[in-house]
Amino acid sequence: MDRYPFLLSLRELCKVLSDRALVKSNWLNLSILPLFVLFFSPLSSNGFVNDLRASGYSLIPAPQKIQLSGQDIVLNNSWAIEARLGKGNTALKSLRSGVAGLFGLEFTGGSTNKIILEVKPGIIGGGIADELAAQGYRLEIHPGLIRVIGNAEAGLFYGVQSFLQLLRPVSNNEFSLPEGVITDWPDLELRFIHWDTKHHQDRLETLKRYLGQAAFFKANAVAFEIEDKYEYPSHPVIGAPGAFTKSEIQELTAYALERYIQLVPVVQAPSHMAYVLKHEEFAHLRADSSSNYHICMCDEEAMQLIFDMYQDMIDATPGVNYFFVSTDEVYYAGVCGKCEKEYNDINRSQIWVDYVNRVHKWMSKHNRRMLSWVEYPLLAEHITQLPAGLIDGIVGTYRSKEWIQNENKAGIRQLAYSSMQGAELLFPNYFPTNYRNKGIEGRLEDASDNVVDVQNMGANLIGVFAAAWDDAGLHNETFWLGWATVTQYGWTAGKPLLKQNIADFMDAFYGMDSPYMVGIYKGLEEGARFYESIWDTEISKERNPGYGNSYGKGVGTERYDLVLNMPALPSAADLKRNSGFKTRYSGQIGKASQLIYENDRLINQLMFATTRVTRNRYNLEVLLSIAYIERFSINTLLRLGEIDTHLQNAYKNGGSHSSKVGQLVGAYKLAGQILEEQDAVWPQLVATWEKSRFEKCRSVDGKNFVHVLDDVKDHFADRRLGLEYMIAPFERMRIKEWRDKLGGIIEEYAKANHVAVSGVEPIRLED
To answer: What are the EC numbers (predicted)?
Structure first.
């Protein structure tokens, strides 16, 4: 838990102190200002929070201009809505459904107080580009009159979202708003969030709920990485059992467009194609017959298959202006025997360029603007061959200035890419932590700086991209803080401070009266990193070596399992054994001894919060399920330490044979407790997760899921058909088998030494 949430990190403090308005202010002389004044003095709009938060309100994304009188107004159901719009206007519907769903308000009228909604072109000016101004709005809040004015329809919709976020309950059926004027528009045109469904399929109603939440945060594009979760009418074998139908995706697309969100298909090709190439029908199209990862880029039949899949997704998403042509990690461009050019760095890059140019031409004919991962194996000197109008979806400070300059010359715009999830297990690394023996600042800190940093490198940004990969199988409910943060800094680049952004998110997502959620998130992150730290790795016994990695075929082929060896069993003759479990895992056991109390507090906090939050209560159910899996891992390690102690006492300590048997039985019972806790926790986690998603790798109407592992990528979530990937490391311990062996040893030792045994027998049903 953050014991001092009001204190700023040094990096955040430097951001404040670098504010030119602060530095130039006559009343602030940093050279003589005592440090304690920085932390405890009253703050103005140039301080650590903006005027809205300083007045007791929160809004995410933070607006561009805030002019407040310092007074509040109060409104209730007696207010009336006056909409100078068409009856089915989205903003009007959003206002009515929003106030009813969030607050139980209906605005039935009965007084002269009015909320006016209107579109008035020109209210956002001052040299702001048309595509940005169209999303702008002005929110005028005065006693008896509130005006939500959009520069265009989208801007009006965003103004309504701001109005909904600002409403603050003050008494029974009365709400306050800050008196003043908010003028707002985005800094960047596109604000993408990423739905990666390669290892799960959300329910349609879940995705609609996500679209509503995304619109609430003013995200306006979703990169829908659908893989085999679509039926693909041209090639139905690709679609997994129960995959979304064309009509379902069309319904979802219309739902998104109504909320000014582009539902942009992401089709993985020409690499990451195991979901296609695992099927016998397409095996002959592989770039290498020994790999299901990559399709041959020099085979016309393969290219036609890809275009068929593109066409299927275009047909499913009418009205969408973009298409994300993945080109993700195309490690082996040109390796196919049908490619005439020698397989080397230059030709790999050129084949990639030729592919992108061909697809771009095809997409242009189909009225889709093309996005792509512009990356390896592309060489910087080949960038200028790429088509103008292409959007590069993966730009960050890791790019060279030469790379960005060449993209600018080619007429390529960019998305500032921030990943909220890579390979970490259970919960994202949002906050500073030690991960894999390396200190990191956290994904939120990186995202808060990214837009400004890449703009300073010369990038011609068109938007931001908030990635949330499904590789490790995290629940999408864990991603909202990340998605909202990237959207925030795509709307108002570089502000507010990260800590305010986090606080604003918690207010908007859970409600103004929710408990201190930041501490809960940090506790979940700490528990998840502990879960990940307890395992050893060994060469996999579950899967074959891989095909290769980004360095080439046959490189990095080893695959590893997460394992934890059980304490050594004793000899039945004299109880002699090889000790060392507690010594080897002393650090983890010590950490578990601390975390068990923190986890208990975390679970209690989540239980408390579940009845206090006013929004997104299901999100807390998911977080609670994660906390219980973390608790299971903590308890398991502690019990294993106790087991090792019991077994060592039985061997080393003196005493009667009866006392030695008692020690062995104690170890046996502890192993049983591990199994009992797993049996208690696991079904509840599955039930919780499957409220929002379908059973993983399910069979539907006689069609079975074809589960073939990717032979280049080894995703944690792909190691099991179901959600059991989370407990797969525990399964590898074979605890039940170990306990049964110990039971046999106990029986043999007790019989040889004429000791009666109790506590080893299976529990009877009547007990």
So the answer is: 3.2.1.52
Q: Are 393 and 465 in contact (CB under 8 A)?
A: yes
Q: Which of 273, 308, 305 is nearest to 288 (CA)?
A: 273
Beta bridge partners of 190: 463
Question: Is 452 among the domain residues?
Answer: yes
Question: Are residues 178 and 220 both part of a single domain?
Answer: no
Q: Domain holding 210: CATH number?
A: 3.20.20.80
Any bridge partners for residue 693, and if so which?
A: 202
CB neighbour list of residue 414: distance below 8 Å, 6 or more residues apart: 391, 392, 393, 395, 404, 407, 454, 459, 460, 461, 462
Q: Is the peptide bond before 496 cis (omega within 30 degrees of 0)?
A: yes
- State whether 390 and 537 are in the same domain: no
E strand segments, 76-113? 80-83
Could you tell me if residue 523 is inside a domain?
no
Q: Contact, 507 vs 468, CB < 8 A?
A: no
CA distances from 571 to 238, 243, 651, 750 (A): 54, 53, 9, 12
- The residue ranges of DSSP E strands in 120-209, in sequence order, are 137-142, 145-150, 168-171, 174-184, 190-196
Pair 642, 593: CB distance under 8 Å: no
Number of domains observed in the structure of the chain: 4
The dihedral sign for the CA sequence 385, 388, 389, 395: positive
Cα first-last separation, the chain? 42
Q: Extract the tokens encoding 226.
A: 């659908």
Asked, for residue 516, whether it belongs to a domain, the answer is no
The confidence score (pLDDT) of residue 761 equals 62
**Are 420 and 457 spatial neighbours (Cβ–Cβ below 8 Å)?**
no
Burial grade of 292 (CB within 10 A; 0-12, 13-18, 19 or more)? buried
Q: What tokens appear for 543 in the block?
A: 């899967």
* pLDDT for residue 42: 35
Give residue 34's domain range: 1-48
Overall size of the chain counted in residues: 767
Query: Coil, strand or helix: which one is 464?
Result: strand
Q: Do residues 103 and 133 share a domain? A: yes
Nearest alpha-carbon partner for 287 in 326, 339, 354, 328? 339
Which pLDDT does position 46 carry in this prediction? 61
Closest CA to 562 of 526, 531, 592, 593: 531
Query: Do residues 228 and 238 make contact, with C-beta atoms less than 8 angstroms apart?
Result: yes
| Domain shared by 458 and 312, yes or no | yes
Q: Report mean pLDDT in 10-residue bins for the chain, 767 residues.
A: 39 42 35 34 62 97 97 95 87 95 90 95 92 98 98 98 97 93 98 98 99 99 98 98 99 99 98 98 97 98 99 99 96 95 96 98 98 97 98 96 97 98 95 92 97 98 98 98 99 97 98 92 98 97 95 95 97 93 96 98 98 96 99 98 97 90 97 98 98 98 96 97 98 98 97 89 50
414 and 305 in a common domain? yes
